[in-house]
Design brief:
This protein is α+β, with helices and mostly antiparallel strands. It starts with a strand and ends in a 6-residue tail after the last strand. Bound molecules: (3R)-3-hydroxy-3-methyl-5-(phosphonooxy)pentanoic acid. (3R)-3-hydroxy-3-methyl-5-(phosphonooxy)pentanoic acid binds next to α2 and α4.
């Protein structure tokens, strides 16, 4: 028997990943930039044992659905092939953030699974290699391997498509204040969404202009220029949702309260409060602000009708092993 446990944070994209050039290898259509979310974490224990007759997956204390197990099985196959070891695994994965709040657990989930499975099988991989492997499970998981502010370079092939840190968390004390507007499971997940993206006539425009937004975002982070960051991340989020809404089938993730929060945040910024929004493949709004504005932003968000819950996260670190939990 051999086992290991790893922990990873989810991340929020400032410049979004939406669409692939290669769906099997998950080579994205554009690069992307994100911030890891401290305090929110997935903890995953992987036990490889010759007594296991098949892979098993326990998610938040319950036997996982067949589709979730299948994704994990396919991912473990990659890692087993790399290690040259064929043992089946028991995977036990727990999120400390409420499921169904629209905070993507696939990024932290596949980052933690990759790290724990590699460690348990004795694979000593460097950060780019771990990020590349995590990418195969879920694209955004590649960005939950390094810490702080992270860029996933699009690359040309499996080897060149991985994420790295562009600045550590201590570089800029930003917070993500998440306005949870719905706890319903999303009707179309990102896996299908990435495939639909190419059916939007706006996707080519989004792809061709991405390098400029990546540059502006990277520079804004390096210079701690909040105004520049605010403009570019709202533009990029709006562009991704424009692609979603014009794809075939169209994906409409916003609720009325999503738009209410977007208007409010823009109004606050006009009145001098540094705050900006970005929205993933769901209705919830991530409001990014300097840490010293977090209490004010939280109070204001809680006063907006339709906001069910508010979760605050600072900048998180890299995926890591739980020391002393390896056998
Ligand atoms: O990694 P996936 O397949 O769950 O895709 C993530 C898609 C977005 O969250 C909408 C954008 C992003 O870059 O994280």
């Amino acid at each position: 028997m051999t086992s290991a446990t790893a922990i990873a944070n989810p991340n929020i994209a400032f410049i979004k990943y939406w669409g692939n050039r290669d769906h099997d290898l998950r080579i994205p259509s554009t690069g992307s930039i994100s911030m890891n979310l401290a305090g929110l974490e997935t903890r995953t224990k992987v036990v490889f044992d010759s007594n296991n007759a098949a892979d098993q997956l326990i998610l938040n204390g319950r036997v996982a659905r067949a589709d979730a197990l299948e994704r994990v099985r396919v991912h473990l196959n990659l890692i087993r092939a790399r290690a040259g070891i064929g043992l089946f695994a028991q995977v036990d994965s727990v999120n400390n953030f409420p499921t169904g709040t629209g905070i993507a657990s696939s990024a932290s989930g596949f980052a933690a699974l990759t790290l724990a499975a590699c460690k348990a099988l004795g694979l000593d991989l460097d950060e780019p290699e771990l990020s590349r492997l995590a990418r195969r499970g879920s694209g955004s998981a590649s960005r939950s391997i390094p810490g702080g502010f992270v860029e996933w370079q699009m690359g040309e092939d499996d080897e060149s498509s991985y994420a790295y840190s562009i600045a550590p968390g201590e570089h800029w004390s930003l917070v993500d204040t998440i306005a949870v507007l719905s706890t319903e499971h999303k009707h179309t997940g990102s896996r299908q969404g990435h495939i639909f993206a190419d059916s939007s006539m706006l996707q080519p425009a989004r792809i061709v202009s991405a390098p400029e937004r990546l540059y502006i975002c990277r520079q804004a982070i390096l210079r701690r220029d909040f105004d520049a960051l605010a403009d570019v991340i709202e533009l990029d989020s709006n562009m991704m949702h424009a692609v979603m809404m014009t794809s075939n089938p169209p994906l409409m993730y916003w609720l009325p309260a999503t738009i209410a929060v977007m208007h409010a945040v823009r109004q606050w910024r006009k009145s001098g409060i540094p705050a900006t929004y970005t929205i993933d493949a769901g209705p919830n709004v991530h409001v990014i602000s300097p840490a010293d504005q977090a209490v004010q932003v939280r109070n204001k968000l809680e006063a907006i009708p339709g906001v069910l819950q508010v979760i605050v996260a600072q900048v998180g670190g890299p995926a890591r092993y739980l020391l002393g939990d390896q056998s």
